[in-house]
Amino acid sequence: IADLRRPDYEIVASPSREEVVLFGRDNLEPSYLILVNLGTGEFRDIDGKNLYSGAKFSPDGTKLAVFRSPSSPSMGEHEGEGEGLMVYDLDSFTLSPDGLPADEAGRGEGDGEFAWSADGQSIILATKLGFFKYDLAANQQSELYKYKEGEDFEPAELILHPTKNLLIFLDGKTGYLYKLEY
Questions:
Q1: 24 CB-near residues (< 8 Å, 6+ apart)
Q2: CA-CA distances (angstroms) from residue 115 to 13, 21, 28, 61, 174?
Q3: Which of 32, 39, 52, 77 is the most exposed place for a label (fewest CB within 10 A)?
Q4: What is the C-alpha separation between 43 and 99, in angstroms, rounded?
Q5: Predicted pLDDT of residue 109
Q6: 3: how many CB neighbours lie within 10 A of its CB?
Q7: Which residue has the higher pLDDT, 96 or 170?
Q8: Alpha-carbon distance 34 to 135, whole Å?
Q9: 74/53 Cα distance (integer angstroms)
Q10: How many CB atoms lie within 10 A of CB 118?
Q11: Global confidence as pTM
Q12: What pLDDT does residue 33 have?
């Protein structure tokens, strides 16, 4: 399709379009967030040089959610607009909304965990405090579940049921599988 700008790209494929997103895996060298049209070979920068991780397309492929590191120096079009879980509208190439703040979205280390709703209108986000639902259209966050005293989960592999209000996740500390009805 094309020559890549660097050899260490993470590649994430769209579930419904002939597109992939690319970003560097080297934590010492920030990269652009790039959308590649596999049909035309066109490369388009979505955002500037930052440290990115954990990218996931919405089920319809029109949005991309990705963690942008709070320690990375933003050099892109969205400089200073937020850190943490960022949501990009791929039809209009806008940042929508301004992103969930790193202190709420981040797990401190690693990618953090989130899952798209089946309709692509909301995101379920695991945080250090519990699980939150973020409604993109309303730009509102609501608490789904707050950890109780003594609960110290490291949620991984979040899966949302397509028709029920049911979240399934793996606890990274114990390896146990949990379900949460909300």
A1: 6, 8, 9, 10, 30, 31, 52
A2: 16, 17, 27, 14, 21
A3: 39
A4: 24
A5: 42
A6: 4
A7: 170
A8: 25
A9: 15
A10: 14
A11: 0.84
A12: 95
Q: Which two tokens stand for residue 78?
A: 């969205």
Contact (Cβ atoms closer than 8 angstroms) between residue 33 and residue 73: no
Span 112-170, pLDDT tens digits: 699 999 999 999 999 888 999 999 988 888 999 999 999 989 999 999 999 999 999 99
| AA letter at 76 | G
Partnered with residue 177 across adjacent β-strands are 170
Amino acid making up residue 26: D
Write out the chain in H/E/C secondary structure.
CCCCCCCCEEEEECCCCCEEEEEECCCCCCEEEEEEECCCCCEEEEEEEECEEEEEECCCCCEEEEEECCCCCCCCCCCCCCCEEEEEECCCCEECCCCECHHHHCCCCCCCEEEECCCCCEEEEECCCEEEEEECCCCEEEEEEECCCCCCCCEEEEEECCCCCEEEEEECCCCCEEEEEC
